[in-house]
Specification:
With 480 residues, the protein is of the alpha+beta class. It is built from 14 helices and 25 strands. A hairpin with a 6-residue loop joins strand 23 and strand 24. The radius of gyration is 25 Å and the shape is globular. It binds one RNA strand of 78 nucleotides through helix 1, strand 11, strand 14, helix 10 and helix 11.
Length: 480
RNA sequence: CGGGGCGUAGCGCAGUUUGGUUAGCGCACCUGCCUUGGGAGCAGGGGGUCGGAGGUUCGAGUCCUCUCGCCCCGACCA
C-alpha cells in the first residue's frame, strides 16, 4: 500500500473519526473557522453543496403546496416568553440584543433560535376565517443558538436552515402535514443524499419545546453514532392559544388553529460527510455534488494541445452534467487525482494520448476507485449511467451499514455491552416511561432516537430496564 | 459549564523543562530550468514577533496573572 502515504494529510477515519471529520472539511474546502467561537465560514465549495441540497428540498417543499416567505431575525422578549415550555427550552441558548447603537433598548430582542414566536404573532393577524386556512409557509433563514460545544456543520452558533410553519383548521390536517413533511425529509435524504433514515416519533423527553408531538429522521454516522437529521413537529394548539390564532369555522364557532413546524439545517452537510466519506476524503452523492465529474487531461508539452482539445470536446459533449476540466499545468495528474478524490467528485475522467489513440477515456469512480475504459463516442451515456449507479450504490452501501449496525437486544446487560462495543442502533423494547428512558441514558449515554413509524418487530417484549411488558420497540443510540 | 489536551509562517510541527544575540524544519507560496498515466526534480527567493493583554527581568516563544480560541471526554442541544 504505497498509496497510503499520499493521504497522510488527513487522519484515518477508523482511527480518529473526529479528527478525520474536521480535516476533511478543511482540506476539501467546505468550511473554515473564524475567530468567533462556533461561527464558521461556509466556503464556496461547501456552499455549492448546500445550495444543491437546498434546491432539491425547496422543490419538494413547493411541490407539496408551500410558499417561501421571510420573517424578522429579531424577536421581542415578550413574544418569546409567551409559550412557557418553548422559552424554557430555548432560554439557555438565546443571544440577546440589548442596545441599538448607544441607546439601551426598552425591551431586549432575541436573535431567533427558531421562529415560532415571531411567526405565530404574525399569523394571529392573518387568520380570521376557516377560509384563511391552511397557511403553508416556509422560510430559508439563519438562526442563532448559543451552544456551549460547537462542531463544524453539526452544531454551530449560527446556522442556516429551513423552517416550515403551517396553520390548519383541524387536528387531523395538522397531523397529516407533520407526517407529510417528515416524509419529504426522508425522501430528500434517501433519494438525493443517499442517506437511509429511520423515521419515527420522539419521546416526551426528547420532543421540541412547545410541541404536541415531535417526529424525526435519524441517520447513522460512520462511527456508529446517530444524528438527528430533521424534525417535524405537530404543535397542536399550544402556540395558537398563547398567540391567539383563532378563526370562525363553517359551523360559526370560534376555534383555535392547529399548527406544525419542521426544519432541516446545514447539519445535513455533516451527515453527508460522515456517512459517505473515507480515508481519501469526501465522497459526494452525484445528485448533489457541486462537480459531478472532473476531466483530468494527461499530456506532455508536445501533446498538450492535442489532448486538451479532445478534453474540451468531451466537456462539451457532457453538457447537462456538472463537469469541470482541470487544465491546470502546475499540478501533475497524480496530484490532481488525489485532490479531486479529497473533494469527493463522484467520477473522474482521465484522458491522455494513449487513450485518444485508442479512441477511449478512462473513467474512475470515487466510491470504489475502480477504473473502467469507455469509448469516447459513448462517454456521455457511460458517464450518465455511472453517476446513476454511484448514487444508487452509495445508498445501498449506507443502508447495508445501517443494517449491519442495528442490533436487536432484549436484555439490559447485553444492551450495555452492545452500546459499548458495537455502537450503532439498538432496537429494544421499552415500557414508555420517562424514568426508564432517563436511567438508561444516565447509565449508558444512549438515548431513544425515536419510536419508529414502521413496525420493526411483532409481538410483545419486556422493557429492557424495568421488565414491564410492552409492545413498543424503539431505536436507541448514542447521538451527536 | 466541569475534566483533559493544545495555540510558534497558509498547513503540519520542533524550540518552552534549565530565559540569552539575527526563532527553525517539512509541505505550500514566488522566480527560473526541467517535468506531467497516482501527490516530480534541481537552484534561487519571500513570508512569522511566537493566540491576545498585562507583569517579572538587563533580557521572555520560554517564567507569572488574566483572557480569547480550537480539539477530546462529560452535562445541554438541530
Amino acid at each position: 500500500m504505497v498509496e497510503k502515504e499520499f493521504v497522510k494529510d488527513i487522519p484515518s477515519k477508523s482511527e480518529d473519526f473526529s479528527a478525520w471529520y474536521t480535516a476533511v472539511i478543511r482540506k476539501a474546502g467546505l468550511a473554515d473557522y473564524t475567530s468567533l467561537k462556533g461561527c464558521m465560514v461556509i466556503k464556496p465549495y461547501g456552499f455549492a453543496l448546500w445550495e444543491n441540497v437546498r434546491n432539491a428540498l425547496d422543490k419538494r417543499i413547493k411541490e407539496t403546496g408551500h410558499q417561501n416567505a421571510y420573517f424578522p431575525l429579531f424577536i421581542p422578549e415578550s413574544l418569546l416568553k409567551k409559550e412557557a415550555e418553548h422559552v424554557e427550552g430555548f432560554a439557555p441558548e438565546v443571544a440577546w440584543v440589548t442596545h441599538g447603537g448607544k441607546e439601551e433598548l426598552e425591551e431586549r430582542l432575541a436573535v431567533r433560535p427558531t421562529s415560532e414566536a415571531i411567526i405565530c404573532s404574525i399569523y394571529s393577524k392573518w387568520v380570521r376565517s376557516y377560509r384563511d386556512l391552511p397557511i403553508l409557509i416556509n422560510q430559508w433563514a439563519n438562526v442563532v443558538r448559543w451552544e456551549k460545544v460547537t462542531r463544524l456543520f453539526l452544531r454551530t452558533t449560527e446556522f442556516l436552515w429551513q423552517e416550515g410553519h403551517t396553520v390548519h383548521r383541524t387536528k387531523e390536517e395538522a397531523q397529516e402535514e407533520t407526517l407529510r413533511m417528515l416524509n419529504v425529509y426522508k425522501d430528500l435524504l434517501e433519494t438525493e443524499l443517499a442517506i437511509p433514515v429511520i423515521s419515527g416519533q420522539k419521546t416526551e423527553r426528547e420532543k421540541f419545546a412547545g410541541a404536541l408531538k415531535t417526529y424525526s429522521i435519524e441517520a447513522l454516522m460512520g462511527d456508529g453514532k446517530a444524528l438527528q437529521a430533521g424534525t417535524s413537529h405537530n404543535l397542536g394548539q399550544h402556540f395558537a392559544k398563547v398567540f391567539d390564532i383563532k378563526f370562525l369555522d363553517e359551523d360559526q364557532k370560534e376555534k383555535y388553529a392547529w399548527q406544525t413546524s419542521w426544519g432541516v439545517s446545514t447539519r445535513l452537510i455533516g451527515a453527508i460527510i460522515m456517512v459517505h466519506g473515507d480515508d481519501y476524503g469526501l465522497i459526494l452523492p452525484p445528485k448533489i455534488a457541486p462537480i459531478q465529474s472532473v476531466i483530468v487531461p494527461i499530456f506532455k508539452k508536445n501533446t498538450k494541445e492535442f489532448v486538451l482539445s479532445k478534453a474540451r470536446e468531451i466537456k462539451d459533449v457532457l453538457k447537462g452534467i456538472r463537469v469541470e476540466l482541470d487544465d491546470r499545468e502546475e499540478y501533475t495528474p497524480g496530484w490532481k487525482f488525489n485532490e479531486w478524490e479529497l473533494k469527493g467528485v463522484p467520477l473522474r475522467i482521465e484522458i491522455g494520448p494513449r487513450d485518444i489513440e485508442k479512441g477511449n477515456v478512462v473513467l474512475v469512480r470515487r466510491d470504489t476507485r475502480k477504473k473502467v475504459v469507455s469509448p469516447i463516442a459513448e462517454v456521455k451515456n457511460r458517464v450518465g449511467e455511472l453517476l446513476d449507479i454511484i448514487q444508487n450504490d452509495l445508498f445501498l452501501k449506507a443502508r447495508r451499514f445501517v443494517e449491519d449496525n442495528t442490533h436487536y437486544v432484549e436484555d439490559y446487560g447485553k444492551f450495555k455491552k452492545t452500546i459499548e462495543e458495537k455502537k450503532g442502533f439498538i432496537i429494544a423494547p421499552w415500557c414508555g416511561s420517562s424514568e426508564c428512558e432517563e436511567k438508561i441514558k444516565e447509565e449508558t449515554k444512549a438515548t431513544i432516537r425515536n419510536i419508529p413509524l414502521a413496525k420493526v418487530k411483532e409481538g410483545r417484549g419486556k422493557c429492557i430496564y424495568c421488565g414491564k411488558e410492552t409492545d413498543l420497540y424503539v431505536y436507541f443510540a448514542r447521538a451527536y
